[in-house]
Amino acid sequence: MVLAIGAALAGAVCCAVAAALQHREAVSIRAAEAVGWRLLSALSRRPYWLAGVATLLVATGLHSLALLNGPLSLVQPLGVTTVVFAVPVAAMVRRYRVRVWELLAAATVVTGLCGLLAIVPSQPASAGGAGSPPTAWMLATATVLVVGVLTALASRRRVLLQGLLLATGAGIAMGVAAVLLQMVLLNAQRGGLLEVLSIASGAVVLLAVAGVWLNQRAYRAGNVAVVLAVVTVSDPAASTITAIVLGERLPTGVLSWLLLAISAATIVGGITWLARSPAHAAGVPV
After folding, report:
1. How far out from the chain centre does Cα 190 lie?
2. With CB atoms 3.0 to 4.6 Å apart as the test, which of 51, 121, 203, 239 could cross-link to 76 if both were Cys?
């Protein structure tokens, strides 16, 4: 369990660094190059963005290690700390001095996170977590439909709302990709069905690429801090909801659910507060 927590936190640090590098390049792409999938093509020729991708791959490896050693409902909420780590990372890059209120906002997120970790399951997902072909197809199809609707709506809305919609779509895609990744890992460990492995693996790649693409578009359309906060919250939220499909045990009892609600509200409040940090000035390359 200690290994899972350590790997998840290290992955969050890597995600914060990757966000800083990717934002630096995403906001500097010319409008003519940022149309549709051409955005990824243009970004792929920029060294800093590629460095961000490499850092994100390291984060993915650490996340996989965490998933192998802990339950999804423990690993995913730790991703919320990405926003906390993003402030000092952005501050170092921009030579910005972190203020007291930003430290208090970070402490608020950590407080909510501690409350959440106090009630999540303390063992890995049950045997049912390996999933089945219909389960893999259902998760992949439902996610593609939801993300597709959000992307379509984003193309018809104003800039601020567009960024929020794209960030939500990115978070959902990444969150469900994490669920499917755990399905792949569990099947590989147990010698599971080849069909499940192939379906889930393909869906992980598709959703990961879609998540990265939507994330870059969101960086261009909205305040980077708000985008990062929305992605950070919607990612574990999507994973937690779909974890039921994997058969993972959830908290029971009125007090547990009350603490869960309070902790979640504290995390969201802290992230909203933290998102106002000048270290994430919108439209200014990191």
Report:
1. 27
2. 239
